[in-house]
Each structure stands twice: as structure tokens, then as C-alpha cells.
């Protein structure tokens, strides 16, 4: 009943509200809808960042750029080229990366483990646009899209002519970044390729990061058909400095005394990834057909010294997918329909080997293998009811099959009371649905209302845990599901545009770590609710000056329930009903400007304010210390000299001492660990186009 009341109140507010954001005069294309669509017609809060928007920004990575957008926050451990960085939309906190689906050219790059997206494998200079679809996408993409979908679209190979570009940047902490791209294309065939390299010592001790990427894309376009082939590899080697520990009761404060120091001077990780994707598109009259065939793998290695009790892990993950789909337009009575039908088949294979030292990994202490197969069917119909009103509804059914086994070798070097988890096989089903209405009240004003159901399955890192007696076991948790209701409005007049959205998401069986209950590990948490307001505005104040502003209010809290806890943790039967979800700031403000100070000179700037937030593991909200609020200002100045563009950028202009991730100890009442982020950094870049 309360959900129905919320929808009615929101609909009434939409009809009588002041105008929201405007519709653009030109088509704003998005492809995260499986087929190209005009973003203006979608019943959702959508943002599209163009290549020009990206070039203006002082952001150095995709997460930095996304953090400039309304309602998106980061969980960044080291601030070194987006190493171990995750994003959060609409208040999911530390599980934001499992609830925000990331796509690359429409292909899923969010994996079924807890590793973060390899953001640095997609340099900003390779991107044509970024599509941000808040709160929508579960019907078309399924698992892990409860908060929305972000689609990163790389440059098209079909740019007629021959082109070459070189980019280089030097910066603080011995940072060197370079990229070479080239393309050759006719009207029907195109090829482009790029080589990217990055190295930096990083802000912290033991934080060296080295990255190399290679990519090649080919496209053939005929009268009715296109064929796309995309290839890529990436390699990263990174040192891991760990956290800075704080415990007031014993006067321990590594953050204040040595914020750049390393707690774990011997820890490191590396990764090798590869991907290949083939897409076939064909048009039969007005019907569009598409078939995607993709393969992706990654090989991750990590070493953690743990005070002289080391562990070395070698994790291999690969996924093969087949994604056929069709869009069929038709007329039914006086209404026009565009029906999208599709099927997604994913085959995941995961292999984890654990040893005490790298040289012993060929005879691991434990070897965990997981096979996961996902099959889904979906349909979505976009109906033009009148020239001013569009209705969208869709449904998806998905089933997953998981088979997991664990082998322990008592003769392996370093074996110490390890056990093997009994083999498990599990099958689960979930469905998603969505209905949305978009209406143009007048030429400059439109509004939308939508409701949707989404879901998330437990991933492979979340199922492998210990029981109460520290025996290894597989725990296939119940699927998480959410119901979202949302309204919004867009308005534009002259050089001013405004967008507003109000949302509520009720989450049931949320999958997350229970840090206080020994023997449980990851579990299904009590019910929670995320609700909030998103406001965006832009003003073309003069022909040479554009101003933008954004504000997000997010209230994320548990609706009821307790955490059982145990005698070794900070308490038992810990009530969390009404408590705030950790790592979700209530307020976030974004401000920005772009000023063409001369014909070939531009200065841009951005400000991000993020309010305080409870630390990870502080579900009871009892630590008494929060992640402090912070404000970060970035500036960038560019000057064109014909084929050469020179840029100078300053990030964190006022040298703010801050962090956006911290975690509470489960066993010591006032102990916590923080991950300091860089102070002021300076960079100089140059681009040369042939």
C-alpha cells in the first residue's frame, strides 16, 4: 500500500511541479538500450557525455569523470589511475559495483567476482561517449543492474580517411602516460588501433602502478548489414600499500602521522586480460537483427604477506557469451510499437589456486573451481501512444546454474589445518520487469514516471566462506531483488536546462558481508530502502561560458532487523533497523564551468562536495566516527596550436586531505582503517593529430 501511495503522490507532484530539464534539439543517441535510441524518449534519468565533454574535463580516468556526475560516488583505495576503484549509484555503498552494471560497447565487463572493473584498460582518449542510465537496465541486461547501467562507447572505426593521434602526459609522482592511435577507413570499411601505456609511483609508498593496453577494431558496413570485430588486451602490475590504522584508545593514528606510508610494503597484484567480440547486424525491411559473440578472460595474481604468514592467489576467470536480439517495429491500431526481443547466454568459468608463495602455486593448498551458466530471455516494447506520449514496458526471465568444488592438498607447502568445501550445485531463477511513461507537456517540458523490479545473484567470491568452526563451505545465498519507483521532469528554454528526478528503491535479501557474525561471512541482510532526489542544471551564460550544477540527496537505511554477532566481535544481536547504510553520503554537490577565454584557449573547472558517511562494517552506526566530508576542486587549461593541443591540469587544487573509503574493525570497538587519497597533483599533456 505504501508503494502505491508513493507512486500516486509522485505522479501528482510531476503534474504540478515546476519544470525540469530540457530536451535537446538534436538527437542524443544511446545504445545501452540494445539498439540505438534517442535518449530524449526514454522514461528514465539519462545522461550522455560526449567526446567534447570528456575533453573539457580535468578528469584523468573514467571513474574521475563519472564522479563529476549527479549522484555517482567513488570508493577509491589509492587514487592511482583508478586502481581498485569502484563506483556507486543511488546509495548501494560498498556493493555499488555489484549493483551498477558497466558495459563496454554494449558488452558486459562487470564480472561474477568481487574484483573491480579494469577502468584503466579504457583510456579517456579512446572514448566517443558515455551513457549513464540511472535506475534502469535490468530488463535488458539482468543481473547486477539494480542501480542502473553505464555504457562506455569507444570510437567508431568508420571515420573516412586516414588519421593518427599521439597523446602524452607527465605529472606528479613520476607519472607518465602515453597513447598512440591510428585509423584508416572508407565509406564501407574501417580499422583503428591503439597502444596505451601508463606508469606512476603513486601517492603512497609501495604504490607503483604500470599499465599497458592494446586494442584493434574493424567494421564493415554494407547496404543492409554491418560486421564489427573488436580485440583488446591489457596488463597491469600494481603494488598495494594497504591501509592507515587508527585506534584512539591506544593513541594509534597512522593517518595523521604518516598518511603516505605503507602498512603492507610487500603486497602486490597483477592482471592480464584479453577480449574479442564479434557483432553481426542485419536489416530486413524495418526489422533489425543483431548477434553478439564475445569471449573475455583475465588472469589475476596477488600476494599478501600478512605479517609473515603469506598467501598467494592465482585467479583465472573467463566468460563466453551469445546474445542474439531483434527489434521489430509495427503498427497496432493508432499506436506505433518497437518491440525488442532477445536472449542472453553466458558461460563463466572460475579457477582459484591458493598457496603460501608464488613458487608453490602449481601445487596449491586449496583449488576452487566454479562453473556458472546464465540463460535469459527478455522483451521490451516501446509504444508511441500519441505524438506526445510514449509507454515502455518489458519483462526478463533469467536462470543461473552454479557448480562449485574445492580440493585441499595436505601435502602442499604451507598447508595449515585447511579444509575443502563440499561440492555444491545450485539453480536459481529471477525475473525483472519495468513499465515507464514519458510525456511531453509542451515543447520545452517533459516528464516521466516508471516502476521496475531488478535482481542480483550471489557471485563466486561471495559463496566461498567458512562455517562457525572455520571449515570451508560454499554458501549459495538467496538472490537479491529490488523494486524501484521514480518520477522526473526535463525542461529547457534558451540556454538554460534543468532536470529533476525523485526515486525510491526497496531492497530485499541484499547480498553483503556480515562482519560481526563468525561463520557466516556473506549473507542476506535485512530489508533496506534507498530514496532520494537528483537535480541537474546547465546554463549557457554567454557564447563562451557554460555553467553546470548538480545536487543529489540520498537516504539509504535499513528498514528493520538485527545482526546476530558473536562473542568475539563488538556485540551480539546488533539492531540495525532505521540505521544508515555505510558508505552512502546523504549530500553530493557538483559544480562546473567551461570558459573559452580566447579563440583557441579554454579553461574548465569542477567542484565536488561529498558529505560525511558511515564507514564500511558500521551497519549499527555505533563507531562514533565517520568518513569526513570533503571538497575537491580540479582545473584544466588547454591551448590549440594547429594540430597540437597543450593542456595543463591541477587536481585537488587546495590540497584537500581526504579519503572516501574506510572500514571499521569487527573486533575492536574504536579501531578502523582508512585509505588516504592524493593531495594536489599537477599534470602537463600534449596531443598531436596528423
Total number of strands: 41
Radius of gyration from CA coordinates: 25 Å
**Cα shape:** globular
Mean pLDDT: 92
In DSSP terms (H or I, runs of 4 or more residues), the helix count works out at 7
Distance between the termini: 63 Å
Helix content: under 10%
So, the CATH homologous superfamily? TonB-dependent receptor, beta-barrel domain
Given as residue ranges, the uncertain stretches (5+ residues, pLDDT < 50) are 1-25
Using the coordinates above, name the CATH class: Mainly Beta
Task: Quickly give the structural class.
Answer: mainly beta
The biggest beta sheet is recorded as: 22 strands, antiparallel, barrel
Quick recap:
This protein is mainly beta. It has 7 helices and 41 strands. The model is unreliable at 1-25 (pLDDT under 50).
Could you describe the 3D structure shown?
With 690 residues, this protein is mostly beta strands. The protein has a single domain (2-415, 442-689), classed as Maltoporin, Chain A (Beta Barrel), CATH 2.40.170. Helix content is 6%, strand content 57%. The protein has seven helices and 41 strands. It has a 22-stranded antiparallel beta barrel. The chain has a five-stranded mixed beta sheet with strand order 3-8-9-6-7. It has a four-stranded antiparallel beta sheet with strand order 16-15-40-39. A hairpin with an 8-residue loop joins β29 and β30. The longest helix has 15 residues, at 2-16. It is globular and about 65 Å long.
